[in-house]
Specification:
Number of strands: 6
CATH class: Mainly Beta
Structural class: alpha+beta
Order of helices and strands: HEEEHEEHE
CATH topology: Pnp Oxidase, Chain A
Helix content: 25-40%
Strand order of the largest sheet: 1-2-3-6-5-4
CATH architecture: Roll
Distance between the termini: 32 Å
Number of domains: 1
């Protein structure tokens, strides 16, 4: 089961994702993530919550680990994000389950706990892929 209800996901696709698409590439804690469909081959771009994780990045899975975009990124072995105005190629995705979300800043940690978000995906930056 995903942390947030499907009805919220649908509303976000229609409204919030379009609004976030305008600011997420530059807003701290957000990014626009581009991935390729594993069956369609089509390119998709979605807003995500993203955080630096050592030399890589971590993305909070607010809709859980079973969403299409997560499965696409895992199957492809990576994706591309635009965060803080920079394009970054991410590789070696690894799912992490941790209910305490110690990696998140305190305010974000509280929000993630309220939304029951316990999963994230950790990436390395492709060598020479910015960062």
């Amino acid at each position: 089961m995903s942390p947030l209800p499907r009805s919220v996901a649908r509303a976000n696709r229609v409204f919030l994702n379009r609004v976030l698409g305008l600011v997420a590439p530059r807003l701290p804690g957000f990014a626009m993530l581009t991935h390729r469909g594993r069956h369609s081959g089509r390119e998709y771009t979605i807003p995500v919550n993203i955080f630096r994780e050592g030399a890589g990045y971590r993305v909070a899975l607010t809709y859980g680990r079973h969403t299409d975009w997560v499965r696409n990124v895992l199957a492809a072995g990576g994706c591309t994000v635009v965060t803080r105005g920079r394009r970054v190629e991410l590789v070696d995705p690894r799912l992490v389950h941790d209910p305490s979300v110690p990696w998140a800043p305190p305010v974000v940690r509280q929000i993630l706990r309220l939304t029951r978000t316990t999963d994230s995906i950790v990436f390395a930056v492709r060598p020479g892929g910015a960062g």
